[in-house]
Amino acid sequence: MRDSNCIIATGTVVSPGQVTGPVKVVKNSEDVKKIGPGDIMVVSQSSPAFAIGVMNAAGLICEKGGILTHICIVAKELGIPCMTQVKDAAELLPENSIITLNASKGMIYEKPGQVN
């Protein structure tokens, strides 16, 4: 078991806020269907096809792109915590792992008590 404050990734803040929930990695437009309330959506890059997933998600993490990419703008407009430029997010954050996204500080933490 790791320290409850273990930082697993950092990135650029797009939309502030903090949320804890399960990771859902979205690689294509079909994967968007698996995003539900409370999920933290992780994408490699922005695509307009992913916007519907953001509307259902509690948080968004992007590996690539800037604060003006389409998906980041959608998250910001909806007030959903969002970070971008999180290097290797899809590899670092396994599907269904529980994390805390602190988009106010630009940090992603392991959920307290999670076993790796």
Tell me what the structure shows.
It is a single chain. By secondary structure, this protein is of the alpha/beta class. It has one domain: Glucose Oxidase, domain 1. About 15% of the residues lie in helices and about 30% in strands. An eight-stranded mixed β-sheet has the order 1-8-7-3-4-5-6-2. Strand 5 (about 60), helix 2 and strand 6 (about 80-85) form a beta-alpha-beta unit.
Provide the gyration radius in Å.
Answer: 12 Å
CATH fold field value:
Glucose Oxidase, domain 1
Structural class: alpha/beta
Low-confidence stretches: none
* Rounded average pLDDT: 90
CATH architecture grouping: 3-Layer(bba) Sandwich
> What is the strand arrangement across the widest sheet?
1-8-7-3-4-5-6-2
Give the overall shape: globular
Number of strands: 8
Count of structural domains: 1
Q: How large is the share of residues in beta strands? A: 25-35%
